[in-house]
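To: structure desk
From: M.T.
Subject: fold request, one chain
Message: Could you run this one when you get a chance? Sequence is below, nothing fancy, just the single chain.
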Amino acid sequence: MPKFDKEAERTVLHEGLPPLEPKKAALHSVVIFRNVKTIYQSRDSFIERIQLTQGNSFGTVVTCNGSITCYDGDGDGCSSFLVGNNQDTTVIDLDGGSISPGLVSFGSPLGLENINQEPSTNDGEIFDPLTQSVPAILGGYSSMIHAEDGLSFASRDAL
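Reply: Done. Structure tokens follow.
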């Protein structure tokens, strides 16, 4: 079971409402993930599962500029990244967690509304060209509605 001592401390510090802004890694930075159980990587249009556990120990994954540069079950294969004190290096302990590509959801309102079941906090109904006509101002029948412009991952509901 992971320990949530840091999270509990931050919650008390911010009166139960921790800040929602994500921490961003600096450009050209190296991020080292320790205690990684598995990696899910996209390879030739399918997702490959890479197991990093050996016995009771977990692996290490090193990323540079957002791409996986090195991974190893015992951490020795990535030793060149683990040595030295680079100020652009961030170390994250996953406590036996996994690393996967960005997740995509079809038909889910995740990140598109602040309060579920409250119409005033979302973008309203999307025109479906299969069931109704799409106005020309939205592109007509050739339009493809994208949710990327309306995503909001910093809402209390998303947290």
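Reply (cont.): The chain has two domains: 5-99, 104-159. Let me know if you need anything else for the meeting.
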